[in-house]
Amino acid sequence: MKTIDCTENPPWEEMVRQAHDEGVLLVRNGHAVAIVMPFDDDDLEWYSRERDPAFLESLARARRQVQEGKTIRHRDLEARLGIDASASDAP
């Protein structure tokens, strides 16, 4: 990872070009303030989802359900539904 001091007034286009190959850490007065990293459309989708309050609440709710024993294992669900898991794994 390359480090650039923000007080040097780095050229943004050059920084973005460098970030295409590796992360670029921006520091000011010896402290990290930002990071520029390679990023594509798939990353953008996950980045957006990871900051969506409704999605985060759904994860928290699911974790509470697991802790409270309100969930069942996948194989137990298959058994309840009469699904033969070994038959679905066949090519």
Description:
The chain is α+β, with helices and mostly antiparallel strands and 91 residues long. It has two domains: 2-36; 41-83, no CATH class. Helices cover 49% and strands 16% of the residues. The chain contains five helices and three strands, in the order E-H-E-E-H-H-H-H. The chain has helices at 12-19, 41-50, 53-67, 74-81, 85-88, and strands spanning 2-5, 24-28, 31-36. Strands 1-2-3 form a three-stranded mixed beta sheet, with helices on one face. It is elongated and about 65 Å long. The model has no long low-confidence stretch (mean pLDDT 85).
Instruction: Order the strands across the largest sheet as they lie in space.
Output: 1-2-3
Output mean pLDDT: 85
> How would you classify the helix and strand content by structural class?
alpha+beta
Q: Given the C-alpha coordinates, what overall shape results? A: elongated
What is the share of helical residues?
A: 40-55%
Distance between the termini: 44 Å
The count of strands amounts to 3
Give the ordered list of helices and strands.
Answer: EHEEHHHH
Q: Rg, please?
A: 23 Å
Number of structural units classed as domains: 2
